[in-house]
């Protein structure tokens, strides 16, 4: 992952690169750094493990405003400890070349040995440093920066977005391979950056480097050297609405606000997409084939996006009796793609390397690929046959919340439309699903209101619990999985999800007096037995989604048959609880440790 920014222009290059970097910190926040050329030819080089804000404090605007070329970086560590020394920009032996890199150099060890033997001195533990020395080696008199970058690039194996600053000439150049990099021109300069979020508000459109394109930025704007040998710039993409940064609303953190936004996001999705369901217009408009033309649907994604895919798969399975499978993108290398498979690739960022690599393995004779993403200009969107925008709006918190809800509802609308277009819908079930879809925004609103206080109370009760179980059955299981994932990533406490029926086959041994056990109730009556088994061992049950009626003074649990995608509103209390517990434990809920929002390494 990591965020890269660079600016070359008439003035304030380091200020521009640093400000842009603030908008990319969600890509990694282990360390940050900046390098820039001053008008007198000297170099400003500042690195810190205290985040992008600390960079601003370390180098005042008077100094950064005077620069005309700069590169910046915010790091998510892969190779080498989190130290200022290992932070980018990384310099060569002579202090001329400053490199920022996103990706992994797989042959770094071999190159390091070779470069050491040639006399280069290494100052960091990171794989990226070989790029700086390779460029230094190639940058002989008469060789321009772009050619030196190409020479270095041709020695690399792995993935990279690289931008290099030649502090002597003030030129910058960038190239990319299996890692995103964009180029955007303002009236007074040129940006290179990992994604469009960096330049939002600065430009109305941007260009995307394709694999092995090189862009050089000298005095007269960007010069393109495309991998197809053309020097024409790549096409322009408009800056999407989703690139605008959100606010924190009534909370101190983005995540709290993003949880609160979920009913409005659901409303936006349902209003925009549901009119295209009954006549199959939404499906056909995406250019997707009738479902009769495919044997199965495969959802592929990672983490929360995979969970969204599993919820969506329920529509194809339960409503249209179409086989589905959910593929963990990082495991796709071990899997065989079956023919006649409709692939739905789900990624809020659209830049997740594991998902892109999984699609690389698709056979030549394959079914269509639909991308479901929050970024319609992303790498995933560009590589897919059809794209649907999940309409979540910007999500800043690293933990996915509103993008999950938006993905589920967008995918559900598409799936329902596909089932209608193919005439495969079971009529009664379809009506029930449609009613549930239309009611989803209100159900989410009620969940947000109802669980605000109880989730805080539960966090207080479980503040010292060391482990948590999340149970579900059928369509509820994926929400249990999502609850466990949220809790792990935010609170750093152990959490495990299980199909409730599996408890007695082993995990029940974990349950002791007071063990917190969250049960996502999708109306399966067998959950009552599972709950009784936990209660008998002293476990503390929190039942999410139960419908209780008081009859003659005693509580009766009502079964509720949920929609084909399960009890979506049940995710709200799980998100809220995870956040409340994390806040109580003093965690940074927007930037959990060791994580990043856009995972561009595989
Ligand atoms: C968890 C979370 C991650 C992402 C995963 C995929 O809260 O955010 O599990 O869901 O890294 O990311 P995208 O959706 O960008 O492909």
Question: What are the salient characteristics of this protein?
Answer:
602 residues; alpha/beta; Glutamine Phosphoribosylpyrophosphate, subunit 1, domain 1; Rossmann fold; eight-stranded antiparallel β-sheet; six-stranded antiparallel β-sheet; 33% helix; 23% strand; binds fructose -6-phosphate
Q: What does this molecule look like?
A:
This protein has 602 residues and is α/β, with parallel strands linked by helices. The chain is 33% helix and 23% strand. The strands form 5 sheets. It has an 8-stranded antiparallel sheet with strand order 3-2-4-1-10-9-11-14. It has a 6-stranded antiparallel sheet with strand order 5-6-7-8-12-13. A hairpin with a 4-residue loop joins strand 7 (158-166) and strand 8 (171-177). The model has no long low-confidence stretch (mean pLDDT 92). The site of fructose -6-phosphate has 15 residues, from helix 10 and helix 15. Fructose -6-phosphate is lined by residues 302-305, 347-349, 352, 355, 399-400, 485, 489, 598-599.
Q: What's the average pLDDT?
A: 92
Number of helices: 17
Give the neighbour order of strands across the main sheet: 3-2-4-1-10-9-11-14
Known CATH architecture of the largest domain:
4-Layer Sandwich
Runs in which pLDDT lies below 50 for 5 or more consecutive residues are none
Task: Give the termini distance in whole angstroms.
Answer: 9 Å
């Amino acid at each position: 992952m990591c965020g890269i920014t660079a600016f070359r222009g008439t003035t304030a290059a380091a200020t521009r690169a640093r400000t842009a970097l603030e908008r990319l910190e969600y890509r990694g926040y282990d360390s940050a750094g900046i390098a820039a050329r001053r008008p007198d030819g000297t170099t400003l080089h500042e690195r810190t493990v205290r985040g992008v804000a600390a960079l601003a404090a370390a180098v005042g605007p008077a100094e950064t405003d005077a620069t005309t070329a700069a590169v910046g970086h915010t790091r998510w560590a892969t190779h080498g400890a989190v130290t200022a020394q290992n932070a980018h920009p990384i310099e060569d032996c002579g202090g001329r070349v400053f490199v920022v890199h996103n990706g992994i150099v797989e042959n770094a060890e071999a190159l390091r040995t070779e470069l050491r033997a040639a006399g280069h001195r290494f100052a960091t533990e990171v794989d990226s440093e070989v790029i700086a020395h390779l460029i230094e080696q190639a940058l002989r008199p008469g060789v321009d920066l772009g050619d030196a970058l190409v020479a270095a690039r041709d020695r690399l194996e792995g993935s990279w977005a690289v931008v290099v600053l030649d502090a002597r000439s003030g030129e910058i150049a960038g190239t990319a391979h299996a890692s995103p990099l964009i180029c955007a021109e303002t009236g007074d300069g040129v940006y290179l950056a990992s994604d469009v979020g960096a330049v939002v508000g600065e430009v109305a459109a941007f260009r995307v480097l394709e694999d092995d394109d090189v862009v050089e930025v000298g005095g007269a704007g960007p010069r393109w050297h495309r991998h197809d040998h053309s020097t024409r710039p790549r096409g322009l993409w408009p800056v999407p609405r989703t690139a605008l940064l959100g606010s924190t609303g009534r909370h101190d953190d983005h995540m709290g606000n993003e949880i609160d936004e979920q009913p409005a996001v659901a409303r936006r999705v349902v209003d925009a997409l549901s009119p295209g369901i009954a006549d199959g217009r939404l499906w056909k408009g995406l250019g997707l084939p009738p479902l009769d033309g495919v044997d199965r649907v495969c959802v592929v994604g990672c983490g929360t996006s995979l969970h969204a895919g599993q919820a969506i798969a329920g529509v194809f399975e339960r409503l249209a009796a179409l086989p589905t499978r959910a593929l963990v993108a990082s495991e796709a290398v071990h899997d065989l793609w079956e023919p006649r498979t409709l692939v739905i690739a789900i990624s809020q960022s659209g830049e997740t390397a594991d998902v892109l690599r999984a699609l690389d393995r698709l056979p030549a004779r394959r079914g269509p690929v639909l991308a479901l993403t929050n970024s319609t200009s992303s790498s995933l969107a560009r590589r897919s046959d059809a794209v649907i925008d999940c309409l979540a709006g910007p999500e800043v918190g690293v933990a996915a919340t509103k993008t999950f809800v938006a993905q589920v509802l967008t995918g559900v609308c598409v799936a329902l439309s596909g089932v209608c277009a193919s005439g495969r819908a079971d009529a009664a079930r379809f009506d029930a699903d449609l009613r549930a879809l239309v009611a989803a925004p209100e159900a989410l609103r009620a969940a947000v209101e109802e669980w605000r206080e109880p989730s805080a109370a539960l966090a207080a009760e479980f503040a010292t619990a060391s482990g948590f179980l999340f149970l579900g059955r059928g369509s509820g299981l994926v929400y249990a999985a999502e609850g466990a994932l949220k809790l792990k990533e935010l609170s750093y406490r152990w959490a495990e999800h299980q199909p409730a029926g599996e408890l007695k086959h082993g995990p029940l041994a974990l349950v002791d007096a007071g063990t917190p056990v969250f049960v996502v109730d999708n109306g399966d009556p067998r959950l009552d037995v599972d709950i009784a088994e936990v209660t008998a061992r002293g476990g503390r049950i929190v039942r999410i989604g139960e419908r209780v009626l008081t009859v003659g003074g005693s509580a009766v649990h009502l079964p509720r048959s949920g929609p084909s995608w399960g009890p979506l509103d049940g995710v709200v209390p799980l998100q809220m609880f995870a956040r409340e517990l994390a806040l109580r434990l003093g965690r940074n809920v927007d930037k959990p440790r060791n994580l990043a929002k856009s995972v561009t390494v595989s």
